[in-house]
Design brief:
Blueprint: E1 3-8, H1 16-31, E2 35-40, H2 46-57, H3 63-70, H4 72-87, E3 92-95, E4 102-104, E5 113-116, H5 119-126, E6 130-134, E7 137-139, E8 145-147, H6 152-163, E9 168-173, E10 194-195, H7 197-205, H8 213-222, E11 226-230, E12 238-240, E13 305-309, E14 316-320, E15 344-345, E16 352-353, H9 363-380, E17 398-402, E18 405-414, H10 419-428, E19 437-439, E20 448-456, H11 460-469, H12 471-474, E21 478-482, E22 485-491, H13 501-511, E23 518-522, E24 525-531, H14 535-545
Parallel strand pairs: 1-2, 1-9, 2-6, 3-6, 9-11, 10-12
Antiparallel strand pairs: 4-5, 7-8, 11-12, 13-14, 15-16, 17-22, 18-20, 18-21, 19-20, 22-24, 23-24
């Protein structure tokens, strides 16, 4: 079947009961015949607690020691989850980022992955066990522990999926996928079934908390399909993939690259009652230790969502389904199978259930049932005709918002060549990222202009200090700082070919009494800076104006964090 990399966020492993719930899901995926690698974040608020302890001891903690400290949270999670999975009868081995072969540069606290050599992980899954890896961390060239900063666990999962040539990387959080807006602000936000990586990148870059920008970019580069789901429910979630799909939620079967090397060692049979075991057509990791066995331009074989049966309770939990060879067509329903004994998809929950008195569903039967349900939905859904005007994707995919930015304005900057270059060279020297930049037209007769930009709130103090020190060199009159801002971003690939999107956006904000400070655009995004106090109202107003509201509230944040 499939090689699946699953990542569980902090809210999914927040306590012992949550660990048990995740373990049951991992075991169900394994018993459905899949090969499983798991990446975990630290439990709940563990990282924050470690930061608080460090702050209580010192005002200037060495960066190297901080990385050693902060990596402890993920090591706790991986060990506990390995114990929980083993308790359910499936062998599991826990590995730190270094043991898993995650190689990084030496930027403590914000390291970048430079390579992945997953030798030990590959050996573990080849022997039929579940490999559980601590996210957010790696090892540098001098064998020091490093942490990856924001989005580190997501990035670890995607990097391992690319290096192992996995069929899918499942990102488990405490919401049922990606929604048209933050469910905590817009309860009637709708779940997005399918997103392109381009749209997801824009959403992640502008405040969507479910996926981080660097993880999405990594997945796009190496063609890793992402599936965002909740660890608290069995709902379908959101697929992020750029290939055409044969039906809702399901990526097509894409041939692996011709030069993909797979291990010849067969996998041990799956434990439990899930069927034939991982050796039956499972995708296997690369035999040679490389960063990725697949060129960036090729797409991996993908998997279809299915569900397996949790042995502990008999309830069903999601797992991925079978991978097909390059020449295979998507599975079609068997019209001759007896419907009385065939597993069925519950129309309300989307779970696969066995008729009363019959055996629990196996991996192949679950896949069969899901494909039947998907085919039925596809046939029953109205199809646009050539006479219809709007047959493209929705104009707007969703709305992201961000409260983590500050606004800095330089007033009275000499409007001469090289002025902006010098300003942003100084800002870059403080390792500060820039989001939005606006330069005013020079005031008539003065030769002076104003330059405003936004940057992460954790970087703004250093940027302000560096610019103030260079005031004499830069020649600006004054420096202004505004931390009370929020950024609203409208994202959708459909706006390329639909005029009037900006007019509708600005009209909705005007009707809501929201003033705009800055505007930034891309081909598929419009971002505006507004006062923080009115950001929530602005999101709700724009969400309604673009017809994104669902008939009733369907979005739930189970863990309360949105991660």
């Amino acid at each position: 079947m499939a090689l699946v990399v699953q990542k569980y966020g902090g809210s999914s492993v927040s306590d012992i009961e949550a660990m048990r719930r995740v373990a049951r899901r991992v075991v169900a995926t394994r018993q459905a015949g899949n090969t499983v690698v798991v990446v975990v974040s630290a439990m709940g608020d563990t990282t924050d607690e470690l930061l608080d302890m460090a702050d209580a001891l010192t005002d200037a903690a060495p960066a190297r020691e901080m990385d050693i400290l902060l990596s402890a949270g993920e090591r706790i999670s991986m060990a506990l989850l390995a114990m929980a999975v083993s308790q359910l009868g499936v062998p599991a081995r826990a590995y730190t980022g270094a043991q898993a072969g995650v190689l990084t540069d030496s930027r403590y606290g914000r390291a970048s992955i430079v390579g992945v050599i997953p030798e030990r992980v590959a050996r573990t899954i080849q022997m039929g066990a579940v490999a559980i890896v601590a996210g957010f961390q790696g090892i540098n060239e001098v064998e020091d522990v490093t942490t990856l900063g924001r989005g580190g666990s997501d990035t670890t999962a995607v990097a391992l999926a690319a290096a192992l040539n996995a069929d899918v990387c499942e990102i488990y959080t405490d919401v049922d996928g990606l929604f048209t807006a933050d469910p905590r602000i817009v309860p009637t936000a709708r779940r997005v079934e399918i997103l392109s990586s381009e749209e997801t990148l824009e959403m992640a870059a502008h405040g969507a908390k479910i996926l981080h920008l660097r993880a999405v970019e990594y997945a796009r580069r190496f063609g890793v399909p992402l599936h965002v789901r909740s660890s608290f429910s069995d709902k379908t979630g959101t697929w992020i993939y750029d290939g055409r799909r044969s039906g809702p939620f399901v990526p097509p079967y894409i041939p692996a690259a011709d030069d993909d090397d797979v291990a010849s060692t067969p996998l041990a049979p799956s434990l439990g009652t899930g069927g034939a075991g991982a050796a039956a057509g499972a995708s296997t990791p690369a035999a040679a230790p490389t960063t990725s066995t697949r060129p960036a331009s090729s797409a991996p074989a993908t998997s279809t969502p299915a569900t397996g049966t949790t042995p502990a309770s008999g309830s069903t939990t999601p797992a991925t389904g079978t991978s097909a060879p390059a020449s295979a067509a998507p599975t079609t329903p068997d019209s001759h199978a007896d419907p009385a004994v065939r597993p069925q998809v519950d129309a309300v929950t989307g779970r696969v259930v066995a008729p009363q008195g019959t055996a629990a569903p196996t991996g192949p039967s679950v896949h069969h049932s899901h494909m039947s349900a998907i085919s039925h939905r596809a046939r029953s859904r109205p199809r646009p005709t050539s006479k219809e005007e709007h047959v493209e994707a929705p104009v707007i995919t969703g709305i992201a918002h961000d409260r983590s930015q500050d606004k800095i304005t330089l007033v009275g900057v000499p409007d001469v060549p090289g002025a902006a270059a010098r300003i942003f060279a100084i800002v870059a020297g403080q390792d500060t990222n820039i989001d939005m930049i606006v330069q005013d037209v020079s005031a008539e007769g003065t030769g002076l202009t104003n330059i405003s930009f936004t940057c992460p709130d954790g970087d703004s103090a250093a940027a302000m200090e560096a610019l103030e020190k260079a005031r004499g060199e830069l020649g600006f009159r004054s420096l202004h700082f505004n931390p009370a801002i929020g950024i609203l971003s409208l994202v959708g690939a459909g706006m390329r070919s639909h005029p009037g999107v900006s007019a509708k956006l600005f009209g909705a904000l005007s009707d809501a009494g929201v003033n705009i400070h800055m505007i930034s655009t891309s081909e598929i995004r419009i971002s505006v800076v507004v006062d923080d106090a009115v950001l929530d109202e602005a999101v709700r107003a724009v969400h309604t104006a673009f017809g994104l509201d669902a008939a009733s509230a369907e979005a739930v944040v189970y863990g309360g964090t949105g991660r």
